[in-house]
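Dear support,

I submitted the protein below through the web form. The confirmation email said the job was done, but the results page showed an empty box. After a refresh the structure appeared. I'm attaching both so you can tell me whether what I see now is the final result or a partial one.
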Amino acid sequence: MKRIGVTGHRSIPLEARAHISAGLRAVLCGHQGSMEALSSLAVGADQLFADIALECGAELTVVIPSGDYEQGFSGPEELAGYRRLKGLATREVQLAFPFSTDEAYYAAGAYIADHCDRLLAVWDGLPARGHGGTGDIVRYARGLGKPVTVIWREGLRRA
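What the results page shows now:
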């Protein structure tokens, strides 16, 4: 089974969404054979990846960084999206952090990088804004020698 993980920005510019969706779809739906998709289901890239992976027939593994992770979602709509995808997951990995901290987010990203065969990064190429951000996880995965595919529309910056 091929394992594909994701790291990416929570904020995706509207004008980049179609390009990013097409890039994710090309990789995920173009894969032959069984596939496991690993995501923390954060708003933005993680949830977009998970939706497309499920659409393409993947089994979803959700990596939950902390015991209070749900409290980090802004409003009922964001939380509903997370819970919907979590309910569709085949497997759930709960990390031992009680609270959502940068360390917990980094550990979740590192877990995904450690357990995937390929990492998709919805990333503008800029450094992480906090420890455990997309840039940190890309650097970590590359340090492991994992193939990393960056998906972003050139010339755009995240909000």
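Response: this is the final, complete result; the empty box was a page-load delay. Residues 14-29 form the longest helix (16 residues).
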